[in-house]
Amino acid sequence: MGRGVPRVVRVATPRRLVVDRGGELAGSIAFLIAAFAAYIDPETGTVWRLPLANLGTFVGAVGFFVGALLLIPEMRSASAEA
Fold it and tell me: How many angstroms separate the CA atoms of 24 and 21, rounded?
């Protein structure tokens, strides 16, 4: 096998997928909400819902951070198997 290719293929259970990828999914949804809330009214030039846009951006960033933290054990186990 080539270097860096895992020798053991693990099948992820649905529960593990939800836990591991839940932060990333929550972050994506929060960024979507922030994008809609940041709509600029062409007539007035003001942001539609600025506090919601800021909150969505913050929650999205936290969601992706949590998702990245949950991937660290998987990364470590993959490097230990190589």
Answer: 5
8, 44, 47 from 39: Cα distances, Å:
47, 12, 6
Nearest to 22 by CA among 63, 71, 55, 81: 63
Any bridge partners for residue 40, and if so which?
A: 47
Percent of the chain residues past pLDDT 90, beyond the cut? 39
* 3-class SS of residue 77: helix
DSSP secondary structure letter of residue 40: B
Mean pLDDT of the chain: 80
pLDDT over 80 (residue 75): no
Asked if residues 27 and 59 have their Cβ atoms less than 8 Å apart, the reply is yes
More confident residue, 72 or 5: 72
The predicted model scores a pTM of 0.67
Q: Are 18 and 72 in contact (CB under 8 A)?
A: no
